[in-house]
Amino acid sequence: MSASLRCTSLLLLLSLHLFITFSDMAEGAKFRASDCKPKCTYRCSATSHKKPCMFFCLKCCAKCLCVPPGTYGNKQVCPCYNNWKTKEGGPKCP
User: Fold this and answer.
1) Distance from C-alpha of 78 to C-alpha of 63, rounded to nearest angstrom
2) How far is the C-alpha of 42 from the C-alpha of 74, rounded, in Å?
3) One domain for residues 52 and 10
4) CA–CA separation, 68 vs 78, rounded Å?
5) 63 and 51, same structural domain?
6) What span is annotated as the signal peptide, if there is one (predicted)?
7) Residues 24, 5: one domain?
8) Are 40 and 63 part of one and the same domain?
9) Same domain, 88 and 57
10) Using an 8 Å Cβ cutoff, are 54 and 40 in contact?
């Protein structure tokens, strides 16, 4: 591989990394803690365990500033929310 091609590839990777970093920051800036209650109310609307669901959803939302869309699943949309685990290794966020 030529030096100019390596340099171009490196610049492309760096640009992509910066784009992802700044787009994540922009997404966090759009979502405020005040958005958590209505999002969690909808997220927990289909469960019969509303109180614990709301408790953990609000806790996760405050930390991650994100709540997955829908009443179940879709956690890949919010990596922080998806990856936060209990001590036992299970999912912390509903």
Assistant:
1) 11
2) 14
3) no
4) 6
5) yes
6) 1-28
7) yes
8) yes
9) yes
10) yes
Query: What span, in angstroms and rounded, lies between the C-alpha atoms of 4 and 83?
Result: 39
Q: Average pLDDT of 64-72?
A: 95
Per-residue model confidence (pLDDT) at position 31: 83
| CB neighbour class for 94 (10 Å; exposed up to 12, middle 13-18, buried from 19) | buried
**Does residue 93 contact residue 77 with C-beta atoms inside 8 Å?**
no
Calculate the alpha carbon distances from 37 to 10, 14, 71, 93 in Å: 42, 37, 14, 14
Give residue-wise pLDDT tens across range 6-63. 666 666 666 655 555 555 444 445 788 899 999 999 999 999 999 999 999 999 999 9
Q: At what angle do helices 50-64 and 36-43 cross, to 10 degrees?
A: 140
Q: How many separate domains does the chain show?
A: 2
Query: What pLDDT, on the 0 to 100 scale, is given for residue 25?
Result: 44
Whether the pTM exceeds 0.85: the reply is no
> What is the model's pLDDT at position 61?
96
In DSSP terms, 91 is beta-bridged to: 85
